[in-house]
Structures are given as structure tokens and as C-alpha cells.
Amino acid sequence: MQPQEVARGSYEVFTVRVPSETKDTHTVEVRVAVPDGVNITRTEPKPGWTTELEREDNRIVSVAWKAEGEGLADTEFAEFRMQGRVADDATELVWRAYQTYADGSLAEWIGAPDTGSPMPASLTKVVEGAAQSDGHSHGGASTDAGTPAGESPANAGEASGNADAAAGETPEQGSELAGTSNFSKVTLGIAILAVVLAALALLVVMMRGRKA
Questions:
Q1: Alpha carbon distance 199, 31 (integer Å)
Q2: CATH classification code of 5-127
């Protein structure tokens, strides 16, 4: 069963990986008992297989997948998925599974985990942690905290770097910029004065011409 570790209160997609291990026959049914520490609410449709849910007190307590065809040969495997929420007080999830073959034999994966049992149940560890998304957007992109929506962390970092560079400008650089600005103002003033003097000179010449 995957994942092997989940957080309390989180929404998870659990994957049952089933190899068919008996020669000369096929796996035709897989049934998984749902542990008390998780509330399964959905299953993923599997082409070629039907899904049956067993409920008690309106809670899904087991999920069975049954082959519509001949099932899985001994060289094949399949993955079956279901979704649910881990309980806030869960400590571990022990998944007991029952694998039925076309010849009528039954493999019961119900042994205590981590004890050397030849057919152990699958164990999912439960740890402290904040609940994740509700599972409606698996695989969706997430952004770092503090990064505006639609802006990648890289762009945000570049903008921050530019701001830091501006904030880190030295006094010498500031003085140089101020001196350049003052020089430009003086140059502009001289140019304006030259234009005014030229206009006055032209006016004097015109007045003298009229007197003559």
C-alpha cells in the first residue's frame, strides 16, 4: 500500500499494488479491508474491473475489485486507487488484503506487519502534520508562501534582488548622480541665456535698420 507514511487529518490517495504470484492461474479479485483510522470516500475506476463497496453504519469498511475478464496472469500486476481522509487520532493504518485466484485459491495478506510473517498486512505509518488539500487538485502547482499569485518564486527573487541593489547604493554613487544632474541643469541654463541674448541682438539690429 502506498503511501507508506501519512499525516493525521490529511486527505490521501491510497494505491494498492497487486502482483499475481500463482502460476497457471489468474488473480480475479482483490479485496481490501479499510482500517478504522481512515474514512474512504472514493475509488478510481479501473478498466476491466468492477468495484464493490461494503458499508457499515454508512462507512466504507472494505473495497473489492473484480475482474471482468480473465484477470491478472502470474507475469502481471495492477494498481487500484482509493481516496480518503486520515483520522485526527490515527496512529497507524493496517491494511488486510484478500487475493482470489481463478482456481478458487485465496491468498490472505493479514499477518502482523514487521514480524516476519510470510504474508503480512500492509502498514501505513501515521505522523503529526498539517492536513493537505482535499484531494480535488492532485498534482496542482503550488507557490511559495509570500509569492503573489501568478508570479514564480524566481521572478519574485529577481525583483527582490533589484530592490536590494537599489537600497544598497553607496553614498559616492548617490553624490555622482547628484553632480551629473546639477551639471545638466547649468548647461540648460546657459543654453537658454544664449538664446535670449541672440534674440535681443537681433531686435537691436532691426531697430537700427528702421532708424536708418
A1: 102
A2: 2.60.40.2230
